[in-house]
Request: fold
Amino acid sequence: MDKEALLTNYFSNQLTQEERKMFDELLDSDAEFKARFDFEQNLQRAIKAEENQNVKAKLISFEKEIAREIPKSSLKKSYRSLAIAASITLLMGLAWIGYIDGTSNKYEELYAQNFQEYPNTVYAITRSGSEESLERNAFVAYESGDYDAAIEKFEQIPSEVKQPYIDFFLGQSYLNAGKNDQAKAYFRETIVKADNFVAESHWYLAMIALKEKDITEAESELKKLINGYDYNKEKAVALLKELD
Reply:
């Protein structure tokens, strides 16, 4: 389970025993996770403090409704307590759902605003070209948006003639085909083995993390990009501020 999911389950009281053990270990060993937890906890307290004011006002309104509908003589204390408790549970539950939905929508919007497919910048495809090769056919499929065909062709290129940039465009093809795990593997392979597209790989790893709402990972990749490269540096700085 990723770190964002662990935090979400913690604050919604849904951690299993195994997840709780993992959660506690991360709090002790992972400074970024601990900082994220502290931020979320403080945010929850602020939200609850504000919501409590609204709850008090609504409870007064609910009690007045109950008093109007049921005579005081028949309104037992236990029933009044149950009604109030149910009201609090409902309102706080709605507040939490609203917070989660709002946060989720924010990340989805940031992803939509910042993600763009990377263009083919390495292989020139001309109408008059008669050359037929797996690489050319792969890029033809890539440029036409047929990512499954592009993946098939890229994967078939023999290792002895495979150019270093192929892994990056395989990552792009998998990403655009909605296969995030495979995309991440090829972007990381590019970072380790290639001289080109390293900065771009960090950017798209951040995009995938943002899409998956793994904010800790997104922040980590953005910081690597900002500290070491110029590619999309201004966008990365702006996006990192949005995630803080």
The first helix runs from residue 3 to 11. The two ends are 22 Å apart (CA to CA). Residues 94-102 have pLDDT under 50 and may be disordered.
